[in-house]
Amino acid sequence: MTIVRTSCFPRAAFLLPAVALLLATPAVTAAETTPDALHQALETKQRIEQRVASQLSRDSSAQHARPAAAAHGAHGTAAAPAHAAPTTALAHGEPAAGAHAAETDVWSRLLAGNRRFASGRTRVRAVMAQRAALVAGQHPEAVVLACADSRVSPELLFDQSLGDLFVVRAAGNVEDPIILGSMEYAVEHLHAKLIVVLGHGSCGAVKAALSGDEMPSPNLVALVDKIRPTVQRLNACFEGAELVERGAKANARHTAIEVMTNSKILREAVEKGHLKIVSGFYDLTTGLVTPLE
User: Fold this and answer.
1) Is the Cβ–Cβ distance between 161 and 242 less than 8 Å?
2) Of the ranges 74-83, 131-140, 221-230, 267-276, which one carries the lowest mean pLDDT score?
3) What Å distances lie between residue 257 and 92, 145, 183, 229, 263, CA to CA?
4) Top-confidence residue, 48 or 183
5) pTM for this structure?
6) pLDDT value of position 92
7) Which end of the chain has fewer surrounding CB within 10 Å, N or C?
C-alpha cells in the first residue's frame, strides 16, 4: 500500500476529511428517495463543495502572499513570523468590520434571495424539518404586503422558506385597517424588522384604475378608488406597458407612505429605529425585484 504524505500536498490535508465525509454518507437508493433523504444528500454535497472551495481559495491567497512577503523582507524589513497572531476579528473566525454589513440587513438578504430566484439557483431546504421546528412559534424578520396576483408569490421570488416571511396580500397591494392590523401584529408581537410593499408588472388592479372604466360591483369600486388618485395623472404622459409599470411603481410607493401615515404603531416603530419600510417592483419577465426610492 502506498502512503501519501500530506505535507507534500498541502491541499490533501484538508481534502481528505471532506472525501471521508463523502464516503461516509449513505447512498440514496431508489427505495430511499424520500424528500428528507434527498435533502440530506444534497446538503451534504453542498457542505463538502463549500469546504473544498473555501480551502482552495485560502491556498491560492497564501501562494500569492508568500512571494510578496519574501521580497519585502529582502529589502531590509523583517518578514512577519510564521506564527504571528492574526487580527482579533479574524483570529476568532469573525468578519472584519463592515465585511458582511449588507448581509446583516434584512432587505439586502431578501434582494440576494431574489437574485438566486431570478437566476434559477434557489436553495434546497429541509422543509419537513422546518415545519416541525415552527410548531412552537414563528419569528419572521420581514412583512411583505404584496398583490394577490397568482404570479407574485413572495416566498418564492425572495427564495425564502416556512417561517421567514409574514405575508399580507390584497389586489393592488393596497392598505386598509385589516391589512394594517395584520402588519401591526407582525411588528408589535413577532418583532418583524422590515415591511416591504411590493408592486409588480402588468398589475390588473392598476390597469383597472388607469382605464377609467366603471366597475361592476361596490367592492371593486372601493378597490379601484384606492389606487386611482395616485395613478390617474400618469395617463397624460404615458401609455401602454410603460403606463402600467409606472402606475404600479407609483402605487407601491404611495402605499408604503400610507402604511406609516395610517398606523401609529408602525410609525413609532420606524421613528425608534426598530422598523424599516420600503417599496419594490417585481418584473414578471426578468424575475427581479427592484427597490423603489
Assistant:
1) no
2) 74-83
3) 43, 13, 14, 14, 10
4) 183
5) 0.67
6) 31
7) N
The domain spans of the chain are 6-74, 105-292
Torsion angle defined by CA atoms of residues 199, 205, 208 and 214, in that order, rounded to the nearest 10 degrees: -150
Kindly give the pairing relationship between strand 194-200 and strand 142-146: parallel
Phi then psi for 39, rounded to 5 degrees? Answer: -60, -45
The angle at the Cα of 154, spanning 277 to 285, to the nearest 5 degrees, equals 105
Among the four given CATH numbers 2.30.130.10, 3.40.50.720, 3.40.1050.10, 3.30.1330.40, the one describing domain 105-292: 3.40.1050.10
Mean pLDDT of the chain: 78
Q: How far apart are CA 184 and CA 181, in angstroms?
A: 5
pLDDT digits (tens, 9 = 90+) for 199-214: 999 999 999 999 999 9
Q: Which of 108, 206, 202, 112 is nearest to 157 (CA)?
A: 112
Q: How far apart are CA 186 and CA 184, in angstroms?
A: 5
